[in-house]
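Q: Convert this sequence to structure tokens.
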Amino acid sequence: MEPQCLNAAETFAACERLWADSQARETIRRRYEAACRDFRPQILVLDDDPTGVQTVHGISVVTDWQRETLQDALEETLSGKERMFFVLTNSRSFTAERTTRAHEEIARNAWAAARETGARLLVISRGDSTLRGHYPLETAVLRRTLEQEGHPAFSGEVLCPFFREGGRFTLNGVHYVQEGDRLTPTAQTEFAKDQTFGYRHSALAEYIEEKSAGVVPASRVIRIPLAELRSLSWDAIEDRLRQADGFRYIVADALEEADVQALAVILMRLMKEGRHYMLRSAAAVPKVFGHVSDRPLLSREEMIGQDASVGGLVIVGSHVRKTTEQLDCLRGSAVPLSWIEFDASGWRRPGALAEEARRVVRCAEDAMRQGRTAVVYTSRTLIAPEGASPEQLLKISVSISDALTSVVSALSFRPRFLIAKGGITSSDVGTKALRVRKALVLGQAQPGIPVWKTGPESLFPGLSYIIFPGNVGRPDTLRTIVEALN
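A:
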């Protein structure tokens, strides 16, 4: 039976009573800091769209996975204070076949680069906090290929999609999305109805069984409940994991970062004993394992520096309800905006999307020359041909995204700022339009909304590129950012 919605305030208050004592968070923090000093692998985070850096700063992102690229990145982590880097795969826009090929190549190249540099490799597969994506395909391919290449056998795989900034929480093995004062099981949200990556179960053990087509029974999944993490006595968890036979899937509760720190301490202890784990998570886990500090939100000056006479550009491809609400709120802003709808229906006619892109470029440049911010958005109605398969729908989505992305690559001058809304859209803008090979994560414009500083090889070097996930933020978050940058 599918779980019921919960009252958020009542649930958080009840879970607060699970802490062992009033100093429990500080105890976890001290144990976590001690564990990080003794455990310093080089962490490779594979990001299926650019939003996975939404909790970190001062971290590099590379956009290809050639052996030389991974070797350079590993050497950088070996010589510097940061122990982690991200590889943008954009695999959420791939077919299953292409995803398999890409992850086989990544695993081979990463293991070869680790052997060459002497790095102690820890791989994290960063996926969507609302459980969309090629899972468990990606981690299964990584595990199989790494072991074939000589990596020691993995003891298990940990699934932890907690992401506080986006209102994603796991309790009693069930994953929830906070919507106002309610915690809604993810399978009851619009995200579970995704035409390509939909699912029926909110309980993570049952979700794994569903997505593995029954290969991994829910009864074989090990659960780590919140009460055990907050008890500060973790021997029972460690013993359960040590005694688990064969390769096992593990799901962990989390309501705040201290819970993830407790999980990290347990896994670090086991890894020091010689065990190896594959990690699949949202954005919170890389921050914790990478020992990334907190920092304030970026200021306007940090994001755009010296003011420019031209306007900014907002590119919106996401169709989720939250994005539409944010666009509606932005319409009420007093800053000078020009609204330009990109007609996506042209995918049916050869050449129509390219012609539409040329029209939109002319309109956007005219607006920006006048100092206005151009807001380019795709038609809000999803175009879904009757009877189309998930992979056919994905191909249509990619063709529209390619046309929308070409608006940025065709610009004849640099905008004051650039915001891309949506996972596939922001990835394509970064890699195809801006031609970024390596970027530095500056921090966040708002909670969960990362900012890249583009590299010298890119179309607009040094541009602060704001990556705005489709499913993150309050209704007024897009408006807040645009008004701050204007």
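The CA atoms of residues 205 and 219 lie 8 Å apart.
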